[in-house]
Amino acid sequence: MTRGQMTGEPHVASILMYRAFLPIVLLLFVAAAPARAQSDGLFEIFVSVDAPGGGSGSADAPFRTIQDGVRAAVRNRDRGVASRVVIAPGTYREGPIAFGYSNLPSKEPSNRNPIEVVAAEAGTAIVSGSDVWTDWALEGEAYWHTWEYTWGVHQNNWNGPDAPTDIVMRREMIFVDGSLQRQVLSRAELEPGTFFVDEPGGRVWLHPENGTDLDEVLVEVGVRDVLWDQNHEDSVTVRGLVFEHAVTPWSDAQAAVRIANSDDVRMEECVVRWSNWTGLYLGESRRVVLNDVELNHNGGQGWGFFRVRDVDVFSSETSYNNWRGALGGFHGWSVGNKILSAHGIRIVGHRAHGNASRGLWLDYDISDAIVDSADVRENELDGIWIEASQGPITVRRSTIADNGRAGIYTTYSRRVTIDQNLLSGNAQAAFKIGGRDTRPVVDFEKRVQLALRAGGWVITNNTVHGRAMVTEHLGRPDWAHFVNTLVSDQNEFVARDDQAAGLFTILGRRFDLGNWRELSGQDGQSTLRLP
After folding, report:
1. What is the set of domains in the chain, with CATH numbers?
2. What is the rounded CA–CA span in Å between residue 323 and residue 357?
3. Which end of the chain lies in a sparser environment, N or C, as judged by fewer CB atoms within 10 Å?
4. Sign of the alpha-carbon dihedral angle for 500, 430, 330, 189
5. CA distance 26 to 29
6. pLDDT tens-place string over residues 203-224
């Protein structure tokens, strides 16, 4: 018996009645729907924040909230009808916009009638986690407002070195005319462009830029932590929406936009910006496409992926993230646009600029991954960190430049191909190789444990400006394994005289290109050019 069938034998008369009644139901439905059904078969539902409320979702009487539109689409799905929710321009101060868990394992799993949630015009429908606050009282040079939230300092999930300070673990946000004000931890620290939350006193203090009258500007205060919560909902497309100002705490699997346990998902022409921590979380999902998605100016990271399969990312961006971490000098764990346990991932034409962290972080259990034609530059730490992965992983035709540490940093990763890239101006070196001994890694699909160490790399056809390679925290056996399994050739090294003498720094010793060839047996056809 398949899921959804009832036990016992149905009565013959009931079957005959059902067969007679079904055409009448379908006829009534079809008769009611033609004005809203489109040529592509999607039934259209309309939403406008300016609607009076109480609408039916028609073009003449739209729903007022996106949540109402999504609920109607889920109801249609349960009836076997595919829907498109069309959202008029405006700012929608709501969230979380939640689904109906249509594809829970306990429900009918084959219910994958498509749902599209689209802006009538890309970029004009804004889902905001903030509310507009007025009636500020002026006292001295600062204004105050009553404050009823008691979020406090969030639990610290990181007990390693360089632990985050209290400012990193808070989540209050205030925007004045769209500009984020800097949070401080005492009233004495207030200065123009800052705010302080006095939870015991029940007030928030805001010191705007000099000369700013809060009665004359838009003051938005973050109050909602999740804006989009899609869980166990397959075959959903989100297009053209902007999500902003979510006060998401630093917590696993939380984000302004959360997509989990959902297959065959598309997110296109969307923006997730100015959230307190993670912009987009994508977890335990398959066959996902991100196309022209901007995940910029988020407090911790633009995206966080976990246990995903077959993800395609095209022409997207994760830039200027970790501003919240930077307030407390925290640049390490769980920031840097992290991808964790991802199999079959393709990132094409991606931009990662100016993050107060790494540009891209391929963290753990990454296999069948391609980074193609990426532009990764001016990030505070490494351009790309390939941490502990079994591969294969390919980085090709990309520019990795002017990053604060290495261009590409690896620990414990094998079967990595670096081909046809430009690596230039990276502070430590183009490549940094680390990882002492082996590290256990569990393949989340095969459920087997692997003992990984860096090896099996192919570095070919790259242009490398400045220092080429350094090692860090690497033992001699680890280096021997790496270099004995390395293929490196047809690269062009560009270095000044003072750089050329130490083009490679291996286990503390400096080598020029000739000495490197003798040491490694590699780069016989590579060239050195002095600028």
Report:
1. 37-90+100-118 (no CATH), 130-209 (no CATH), 247-529 (2.160.20.10)
2. 9
3. N
4. positive
5. 5
6. 999 999 988 999 999 999 999 9
